[in-house]
Amino acid sequence: MTFTTDQSTAAAFAQSWNNLPAGSIYTHEQFIDWLTPLTKDDAQGKKVLELGCGNGSLLTHMANWQPSLLVGVDLGDSVAAAKKNLAALPFKHWQIIKADLVEWQSDGFDVVYCIGVLHHLQEPRAGFAAVIRNVKPGGQFHIWVYAREGNGVIICLVDPLRKIVSRCLPWWMIKYGIATPLAVPFFLYAKLLFYLPRLTWLRRLPLYQYCLWIAKREFSFFRHVAFDQLITPQTTYLSRETIESWLKNNRRVDQDSVYIISRNGNSWKFGGRVK
Ligand SMILES: C[S@@+](CC[C@H](N)C(=O)[O-])C[C@H]1O[C@@H](n2cnc3c(N)ncnc32)[C@H](O)[C@@H]1O
């Protein structure tokens, strides 16, 4: 049951990832923003794993942090694009594995990160357990997910549309017929907020912080984000309370090391060390 749903989600994402130009879709600044508080010192010379690596867009940046081994796992055919993107780098100590992260088991990594994946799983908590399971004793984990908090507009307007189109339309119609026209007002709204003075009352507008972040990118990135939102058959918006309970109830998590950080007002970064 779990496998079937995650498989269709991964297949949907592969339509997105395998139809992008070569290379990372993220800037260096975005990579740092997603990975902070992890730094190069945490990864250099260490075994690093990304669970749910897509087309390797984060892995290509992580390679610059010079881990001793860099492994990416994904259930979808996007592993083809990930292999191409990593093969183009001078860094050679990488491996891309096609597998269901919920079941995949390794000997353990010094650092495991999982960005934008758990909220797309049929069972996000099982994905969290898989992250922890693949960290060596004393190692670190770092996760980013969509928040329930700060996403009212997306949950009310975009998510109902996603539930319909992701199930009945082909990827190209979602991308060009729906995501592209939707990305136009999204792009204009974000750019407007970005160029307006940072007035206190403006901060109350929907997705304000997020818009300041994404407004640094070009239109094609907005379309990619809109397409990503609409193509996936499974999305769960996770509350801080849920994340706190995951961290608290996993016996391997060192409670003194945990952090939960609000990112752009509508998502959570969280992580820590494993005992
Ligand atoms: C939004 S993408 C994020 C990709 C990458 N982490 C990034 O930030 O660019 C989510 C990825 O999770 C993968 N995925 C979903 N369910 C999975 C599962 N059960 N096992 C492994 N990968 C999975 C999808 O195939 C997709 O590539």
TrEMBL record:
Residues 49-141 form the Methyltransferase type domain. The chain crosses the membrane at residues 171-194. This is Methyltransferase type 12 domain-containing protein. InterPro entries: Methyltransf_12, SAM-dependent_MTases_sf. The keyword Metal-binding does not apply. PANTHER family: METHYLTRANSFERASE, SLL0487 PROTEIN. Keywords: Membrane, Transmembrane, Transmembrane helix. GO terms for molecular function: methyltransferase activity. Pfam families: Methyltransf_12 (PF08242). Gene3D superfamilies: Vaccinia Virus protein VP39 (3.40.50.150).
